[in-house]
Amino acid sequence: MKTLNQKNKQIEKPSLEYYLKLQYPVTLYPDSQGGYVAQIKDLPGCLTQGETLKETMANINEARELWIETAYEASDDIPLPSSDNSYSGKFLVRIPKSLHRRLAETAEREGVSLNQYIVSLLSAVA
């Protein structure tokens, strides 16, 4: 599909596959009534919920795909993922072995990685 820019030059619109491969930041937080909520702030209205972190992540991935496909078919603008280059997204925290074990065990029960589980906990208090 082609679009016109302001100088009347034809430019190629990126493919649907291009947009589907983009990595959007996801915000996770616990729902006050149980389960979790996930949102992609770069895609207005793209949010979902689930009973477990694993289910919530699967749901937000499906919601992202549907949001992008719908916008693409309607020829709406699809925002690119936001980025904040001033932060790497990584930091080191030393914790007691007993806390590490409890967090790892809970993440395993939830069916998610330890990293995903800790991010969801931090998102809830930030």
From TrEMBL:
User: What InterPro entries does the annotation carry?
Assistant: Arc_rbn_hlx_hlx (IPR013321), Ribbon_hlx_hlx (IPR010985), TA_system_antitoxin (IPR051404), TTHA1013/TTHA0281-like (IPR035069), Uncharacterised_HicB (IPR008651)
Q: Which GO terms describe its biological process?
A: regulation of DNA-templated transcription
Lineage top rank: taxon: Bacteria
Q: What is this protein called?
A: Toxin-antitoxin system HicB family antitoxin
Give the species this sequence originates from.
Nostoc edaphicum CCNP1411
Origin organism lineage: Bacteria, Bacillati, Cyanobacteriota, Cyanophyceae, Nostocales
